[in-house]
Every structure is written in C-alpha cells, then in structure tokens.
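User: Predict structure, ligand magnesium ion.
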Amino acid sequence: MNSNDMKEKTAILYSLEAPNEEQERRFRNFIATRYGEGYDFRWEKTDAFPGGFRLEVGKEIYDWSVGGRFQQLRDTLVKVPAKNGNIIPLIKETIKSWTPEALAQEVGVVTTIGDGIATVEGLDNATYGEILVFKGGTRGMVQDIRDHEISCILFDDDKEVSEGSSVHRTAKTAGVPVGENFLGRVVDPLGVPIDGKGDIKEADYYPVEAPAPGIVKRQPVNTPLETGILSIDAMFPIGRGQRELIIGDRQTGKTAIALDALINQNGKDCITIYVAIGQKTSSVVQLANTLKKYDALDHSIVVLASASDSAPLQYIAPYAGCAMAEYFMHQGKDVLIVYDDLSKHAVAYRTMSLLLGRSPGREAFPGDVFYLHSRLLEMAARMADEYGGGSITALPIVETQAGDVSAYIPTNLISITDGQIFLENELFFSGQRPAINVGISVSRVGGDAQTKAMKKAVGTLKLDLAQYREMEVFSQFASDLDEQTRKQLVYGQGLMRMLRQPQYHPYQQHEQVIILVSAMAHVMLDVNVEDIDEFLKGLLEKFQLEYPEIGEEIDREKVLSDELKAKIVEVAEAYAKDFLKRKQA
Ligand code: ATP
Ligand code: MG
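Assistant: Predicted complex:
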C-alpha cells in the first residue's frame, strides 16, 4: 500500500469539541455506508470552525463550518419553487445568495480553464449534466467524464476562475426559470431579460434537459396548426405536436415563413416561442419589433443567443426555449416553437466539443450531434387528454449550402423531423415567394390534422402542380403547342402565381378554402397571370362583403358541403366574368 492509498483511507473530523460516543458512532456509520469499511477515523482539535465541523474522507470534504449557514442555505433551496427540487437555476443572482461554499459536498480543483471550458480533478462522483459551482459563484455544467478528470462548460464569465481554484458539486441539474411572465419578453438562454423591461418573476424552474414524454402520454397529431401561408396549409399542413423542418440556402425566406406562422397564431390560443441561435442581435431586435407591430409579442417569448455569445450559451439556447414551452404544454396549452437555426446550433456544439477534446467525426462534428438534435425535437408532442392535451409544435430551421441537402446536419434533421419545407434560391429570385419547392417538400403527419373543409378544397392541387412542372420542362423544346397543352400550362402558371404570398399577409382558413375551390374549378383560367394577385384580392373582398355567411360557416363547421362548394364556384365564376370585362374595357 503506498502513502496515497493510506491517505485515502483516512477520515478526519476537525472540530473544537470532541464528538461524543453517539456522534462518533454516527460518523463511522455514515462513512461505512458511503465509502465502505476500512476507514481509519480520527478526531483533530481545531478552533477554525467555531460552532461547526469539517469532515475529510479521502479527498472529499464535508463542510458544516458555519452553523447557521447550512440551515439558511437549506431554507433558500426550499423556497425555490422547483417542482422536483433537483434543479439549480442558472441565474447568477440567486446562486450568489445561496452561499454554496457551505454546501456539504465534494470539492475538486480546476486543472485547466479557458474558452468557457474548465477541466476539474477530484470530483469522482459528478454526473453528466450536473451543475458545478466555481469560486465566485460561476456555474458550469458537466459535459465530459473521463477516468481522472471531468470537463464542464461555463455559463458565466470565467475571469474569476483560475487554475487551482476550488469547485463544488451541487448534485443538481441545470434549470431555467419559466412562467407566464416571460410572455412578451426577450430573454437570454438563462432566462435573464435583455429587453430592458425589468425583472421577470418566474413561476417555476424547469430542467434544461428533461426526458421527452413517453408514448403512453401522447396522442396522435389531430389538430391543425395554421400558418396562414396558403401553400403550406394546403399542401404541407402542420399539426399541433408535429416537427416540420424549414430548409433552404441563405436568404431564401426561412425566417419569414416561421415569422408568419408565429404572427398567424394571434387569437388562436397558441403560445409562440422564437429561439434565435447565432444570429445578429440587431436582426432579432427587429424581429421582436415586427412581432410587436403585428400584435404577436404578447403571446410570444424570444430567446436570444447571439453570434457573440459563448458556444455553451448558444448550445443550451434551444433547450432553454423548449423548457419554457414545456411549462405551457404541461398546463394543457398549445405552443409553437421555432429554432432559428439548428445549423448554427450544431456549429456551436462542434466548437464546444472540440474544446472539450472530443474526437471530431463527419464534417468535424462530434458523433453525438444527431442525438443532440433528436433529443431536442423529441420534446415536440401532443399530450394525451388525461395529461392535459397540451402540445409543442416545433419548426426547426436549417441552412443548406448551395442547396446541398446531403450535408451532415441537414440529413440528420430530415430524418428526425416529420416533414420538410424546402426553399429554393431559384424560385426565390424568380419572384416565387415563399420559395417552396412543391415537388420535394412533404408533411408526413399533418394531413391527418387538416380540416375536412381544407382537404376537400385542396383537391388535386399537388398533382396538377406536378403535371405542370413536367410539362413546363418539356414545353421548352416544343415551338408550338396544341390547345390542350397550352391550357394546362396557363392553368399551372396561374396556380403557381396563386401560391405567391407577400410577408405578413396570412390567409384565414375560409379565405384559403375560397381561393382553392375557385382555382380548382378553373375559374381564373382566362385571367392574365399578372392580374391574379388583383383577382384574388377582389374575390376575397367580394365574399367578405356580400357573402360573409359562407366564410363563417367554413370557420365554424370546418367542413365543406357540396352545396357550399357549388355556391363558391358560382360566385367566383360571376366575379371572374365581371373582372375580365373590366380588364378588357
Ligand atoms: P438567412 O439565411 O439570412 O437567415 P432567411 O432564409 O431566413 O435568411 P429571410 O430573412 O426570411 O431569409 O428572407 C430574406 C429576405 O426575403 C427578407 O428581406 C424578406 O423580407 C424577404 N422575403 C421573405 N419572404 C418573402 C415573401 N413571401 N415575400 C416577399 N419578400 C419576402
Ligand atoms: Mg433567417
């Protein structure tokens, strides 16, 4: 046995008074249960801990040195309204007032520190995801556990921490504050407000990473989540609880689609959360202002980890946003959450992982980057009615390079999500906005959630568009076309034009039904492609002014009877006649 082992098998109690027989028995008991037999227990007199004691077992230290402090800490911990008491809020002020030095725990030593990452020795029992407290109250989260050391990421400035400084375990996981008061606010990934509107009183703390609801607690996706964007609601409908990926190159309108979907939740009993990862602060401020302008901020939370934030902060941002969403879901509410975007999230995670010394894999991402995103998106769910019936619908965004969907992160996300909306550069620049590629976009579950009215109104739209695309390619080679082909081309062009939709102009459900029914009945066949915007606008106005009961019936009944459909076609045809006459005059 070498001297080191000798030291590790010693337990020393430091205090002013010697422990009495009963106390000593308890100490020995505690040591035997926790560390096993064979410890040499002894008492050393010291006046360093008046009213308290310190127990050193091997390299672990139990420090009850300041009598009242421990109790006070316990009290503070109890006051935190966390549900399972197993969470440490990441907000600095709270932890500082907790005097963590007094917590009975193991103490380790920092061996290296830098770039927001610290390696620590001597905390053999620390677990993955546990919060460690460094000198000065800096908090870190355990990310890597190796034989003799662990690595953790830091959430605060690492200035106060240096090599050799001590670290304490907390035996608790990271949590973010959640609650109704966060609505209408812009916060950082730790839940600290950054909009200058004052403190936010939390209702609870939720763990940054909670297990996803199990299959028993879920129910199938069966309620639509309307985006107000005609092409999406008609052909790639999204249901509450679904995960639909928005994928496309830079500047193809990805954020615009998400933003419109957020704004469209006005008055629809759906809370919205926008998580910005690695973006410019200025563009997120602008987005928050836009939400406000369209009266959507009141039911929204914006979580911002900007490009200048540390990799660890960017890494936890979507999880923090998700924790805020879970709070509402557990209350039976519906939430729509946008992660903008997960490419930057993956890059932040890669940076962090490389700093942690993990070996790089494909495209230098760590091997578990797939798991990183599947864990996050698995949280999207529609809860069974016994569990409140709430839901989280996720719209993750991923950026592609030159339309390459076979890159690592995009393929991962495509396989994790329930469908994709592909945006294309070419379409975007040709003026087809939103630039959705109808041919390869898909929604694998949302169809079940579409209302009967929408389903009936959509008819063969997708098929007609597919036919049009085939013909379009083929017609480039033929100089003169027969009448039938020409008509189909014109019809297809009209449909494509109909799907163009400016930003911030969501359609209501009945408006979409009216447009679709009219279009599928070839009502706009003779309308010039350039005039279609004007035509649709006038058509909806006519229905609004002269036949408001039609819209009301669709919105109320959510079905489209044959009579109603015929009525819509009749009105639309009459309108088209007038419209064409006016145009020719
Ligand atoms: P980035 O890759 O930079 O995040 P992005 O793909 O999110 O870009 P957006 O920022 O949403 O793209 O849109 C790019 C530009 O296109 C913006 O100026 C936006 O206003 C405009 N735009 C997006 N959608 C539409 C639309 N339907 N009609 C008109 N303009 C649009
Ligand atoms: Mg964007």
